[in-house]
Amino acid sequence: MRKAVVTGMGVITPIGSTLDSFWASAKAGKSGVCQITRFDVSAYDVKIAAEVKDFNPDAFIAKKEQRRMDMYCQYAVAAAKMAMQDSGLDMAAENPDRAGVIAGSGIGGLQTLEIQHTILREKGPGRCSPFMIPQMISNIAAGMIAIDFNMKGPNYSVISACATAAHCAGDALRLIQRGDADIMIAGGAEATICGLGIAGFASMKALSTRNDDPAHASRPFDRERDGFVMGEGAAMLVIEELEHAKKRNARIYCELAGFGMTCDANHITAPIEDGSGAGRAMSLAMSEAGVTPDQVTYINAHGTSTPLNDKVETLAIKRALGDENARRVMVSSTKSMTGHMLGAAGGIESVVCAMAIRDGIVPPTANYEFPDPDCDLDYVPNTARQADVKVCLNNSLGFGGHNACLLFRKLA
């Protein structure tokens, strides 16, 4: 079976829009949550989010093209360009038919929808933009990235809510394993911090209302958690066939060695309460990689900071690893700092796994203050920890019962 490795990464996040700045913030437990600045929140119950603060699209995209792209697509293209630069790949020297893109978004161009619907209501149908549809659709980022790099191999978009980016990376692994491609860009992007996005999630009572203390609002596994914090951004990985990467003397972060995917088939938003769906996804990822539960060093949890998710994910980890190994393994949720980046979450958390393996550092779960008896594992509270990280699991669990787990390991 052909092996796949990670050779490049690019990120746009609320705690840094370069790989180095993001990783420094994640290790330090720095929060990216603040009062929303994008629109007037005076009428909203939720007034906080994790906004991207330092993104300069001019560094990646011509101004004319920016006007034709939703913000989520701008984030995706920028992250892909950084990932390709990081990888050292020169597509002029590669076969474009053997390179592809799988890039998704949980929701897509929500900002475009909001803006264009306002124009429709206020000015009539003739004033809607001819670019509205390509701006909105969730697959357009994959197409734009392929155009930029002349990648003519497999190209599509996965849409599975908060499991989107993990499914994209898992599918990229499958394509490389079976010989359909040698190089894949995979990941996700999201930009839903707008009136419609906040209103919709707030109406579900899914978001934290800790408006007076934004930096401490996202608190996964903590007894006082009251909902997730909306985040935004993008993360893209260059996933490459091992021998192809070796042939060009690429710098290799780690191996992507396993992928498990399941469905709870239970409820449109709530996970199945015994954790069986997510647990089975973890077991499948370990089985594919030939890894036993005692070999797992670190789990980057989905860890949304919602009362039900964190309790159920704790149960899922115990199901997959067994009680003894579950209590030994390090678990952390970087959503405590980035907020929940929705369709991009599995991408940025894959980057965390790769960096943890490279540097031997596990980032913390920030804002962990009050232990919850239902969440009784080692969540690496508040302070990063040095460790020889050999095997990581990355959990992503989406509305609709979608469960995805990626297994990354140090290359032998």
Helix % is 25-40%
CATH topology group of the largest domain:
Peroxisomal Thiolase, Chain A, domain 1
Write the CATH architecture name of the largest domain.
3-Layer(aba) Sandwich
**How many domain modules?**
2
> Averaged pLDDT, please?
97
CATH homologous superfamily identity of the largest domain = Thiolase/Chalcone synthase
* Major beta sheet summary: 10 strands, mixed
Side-by-side strand order of the widest sheet: 5-4-6-7-1-8-14-13-9-10
CATH class category of the largest domain? Alpha Beta
| DSSP E strands, number | 14
Q: Write down the overall geometry.
A: globular
Provide the gyration radius in Å.
20 Å
- Give the helices and strands as they follow along the chain: EHEEHHEHHHEHEHEHEHEHHEHHEEEE
So how many helices? 14
End-to-end Cα distance, whole Å, is 16 Å
Q: Strand pairing plus helix content: what structural class?
A: alpha/beta
